[in-house]
Design brief:
Length: about 270
């Protein structure tokens, strides 16, 4: 029996991936949402743990429950993440800290905690990055981008550090997919626009840009093929890009000064 630990298991991208591997793994599913208890009722071989993995007591509880079932983990997939948008000069530090705890530090602590389990199985770790983790930094999208850039650097360093153990470390960079996170963008912008003192005009234009991106968002089921390659291939790629924005990629290859000029035209 193979064992897989999946964080953020109730997220939009997690559902189709979990459904595609349920027959091959005993699934340990974690999420902060109580809705996880009512999900995946068709999967018999599973352990469901609801809790906030940014808290030490939750991580300790997860560890204790897992070690009673298995002493090895063949797979860890990190889906957990939140979105924060807004001006760098206005968003409170507390909001940024919360995002980093969920999007980055929880990954760090979970991987450290279960390193002995991964060593025994020569398992693999898959981190959910984003197109923003590799492409240019957009105004008012900095917080999420910083967290994903952190995941990128961490992933690459960890991959090289764990190579001698036979543990594969892979990152997946999705573009826009139809998930609850994407759906909440409109609400977030409405809230930010109501609160901003100095950035009303550029934020309104950024909102229009993001809504246009949402229209091209893809069905989450289309990400399954990419994840299955990362999970099952004997020699997987180090990085998988899927569903990324052509405009973002095009803008990214331009020199920084031209990027700044074009973004300045858009937001002026």
């Amino acid at each position: 029996m193979k064992y897989a630990l999946i964080t953020g298991a109730n997220s939009g991208l997690a559902h189709p991936v979990i459904a595609s591997i349920k027959d091959d793994y005993f699934l340990i599913l974690t999420d902060v949402s109580e809705a996880l208890n009512g999900a995946y009722t068709d999967i018999p071989n599973k352990l469901v743990i609801v809790g906030d993995l940014t808290k030490k007591e939750t991580l300790s509880r997860l560890f204790d429950q897992i070690k009673n079932i298995t002493k090895k983990l063949d797979l860890i997939i990190h889906f957990a993440g939140i979105l924060e948008i807004g001006p760098l000069m206005e968003v409170p530090l507390e909001a940024f800290e919360k995002l980093m705890r969920i999007n980055f530090f929880a990954i760090y602590t979970v991987n450290q905690k279960f390193f002995p389990f991964l060593k025994k199985a020569k398992g693999r770790i898959i981190h959910l990055s984003s197109e923003y983790g590799a492409l240019l930094a957009l105004p008012f999208h900095s917080f999420y981008t910083i967290s994903k850039r952190s995941v990128e650097v961490y992933n690459d360093s960890l991959r090289r550090e764990l190579k001698s153990w036979g543990i594969k470390v892979i990152k997946v960079r999705p573009g826009a997919f139809k998930t609850a996170m994407q759906a909440n963008v409109t609400k977030k912008f409405d809230k930010i626009l109501a609160a901003t003192k100095d950035f009303q005009s550029p934020l309104t234009k950024m909102q229009q840009m993001m809504l246009a991106e949402l229209k091209r968002a893809k069905d989450p089921r289309k990400i399954v093929k990419t994840f299955r390659k990362a999970i099952y291939k004997k020699r997987p790629r180090t990085t998988y890009n899927v569903g990324q924005s052509f405009k973002m990629k095009l803008l990214n290859i331009l020199p920084e000064k031209i990027q700044d000029y074009l973004l300045g035209l858009f937001f002026s």
